[in-house]
Amino acid sequence: MEKLDYISEYKLDSLGSFNRLSALNKFYLSRLSRQTYIMDATEFLEIVQGPCFQIFFCMALMRLYSMLNELKEKITVLESKIDQLSTRCCCNKIESIKSQHHRDFITQNDPCLENKNAGEKFKEISNEDINHPNLHMIEENPQFIGHHELQISEGGEADLTRHLAECKKNPDHLQFIPVHQFNLDHLPESHRDLYDLIKVVADLTVRISVKMISERRPQFWPNTELPYCLSDKRGNKFLRIGSGCVIGLVKNEDEQCSCSNCQSLDRARSSWKIKILTATHVVFDDIEASETRVRLFFDSEDSPKVVFDRVDLINVSTEMDICRLDYNTCDISLVEKLDQMCKRYSDVRKRVFDKYNATRDEDKLMFIVSHPHGCSKQISIGRWNDKIKIIGNKYKFTYTTCTCPGSSGASVHCAGYDRSYNKYWYVHSGSLSGINYSSVD
Length: 441
Prior knowledge:
By secondary structure, this protein is α+β, with helices and mostly antiparallel strands.
């Protein structure tokens, strides 16, 4: 009888329910031993016509379906990563200082080092790879306004980890440094004087959450026809999260504390105003300020919750995208802690300014500390690209230093631009075509 060499492409998972050694059993056993089983036509018909073939066929189809789904998922992930290579921030080695490889790259190409030729080469690469793509965008959009980087979470706090996992801008978040893991090794030796400044800025960084959108938000950004942030959501109530920074505190000489504890206990004590800086598109007016909560010292998921439950809007500028908030407190231990941090910031800032002021537009060093996706603090380090003139002698910076939804309002620190005397108070404002930008100052 004619022999058929039949080799299956599928590996059966189980056929243990068969009691007799049928042709299908023999075939299955041969597959387990990786041997070719030669069956005659009668045995082949027994398999095809028997009820066991349906099981075999269904299992094969299910396995094929599973393999196709796995392949589809891998293709989707691959396409996403390919897309991010061209648009995601911090994908250029020039901007990264996180890994040893990247630190070595900067050490070899940093223009502030003693090797002048290497510096010129770095500037040439930087201009070609980063600055030139901005020119076309600036011509079409002279104010360089893109989209906000608030973390919108209609599912509330519970959905924040999901937003982090599903992030499309920086899927792996490799260019962010968790603040509790940050150390000197994340900086090249020539720039380690920035370490103390980054640490104290991280200490003062806060997470800002708002639960409603004011009806007063304008339809467009000032002097443009570009839709203003969340103007299409006016009147809605859902959680959005940004970042901010404590910039100082002052004692209320003529006011008593109005915090919730003092109000509930009907007592009056001395109080202090804690000053907070963020972006206007994070907290637009006093209506939104009444629904704002500020969390301090959120360094890790295990950090204790220190929350300001009510803040006052002090001043705001839609054109510059800068907002000042105050929080009144009588908590003397908190006041002393923040006061020490602010004093340390002033001391360290002065040292960094003295070193980098003369070469600030060549070095272009910068860093941001923010709460990506409303989660714990992260540090991102890089270089700024351009300083764009917006209004009179007011400018905004562009950069590819890493940011994500939740970074809106985070303070932007450019080494050599001393944040004093009401100058250079920049916060993260948004992103346009893969390029991030600051507020105006």
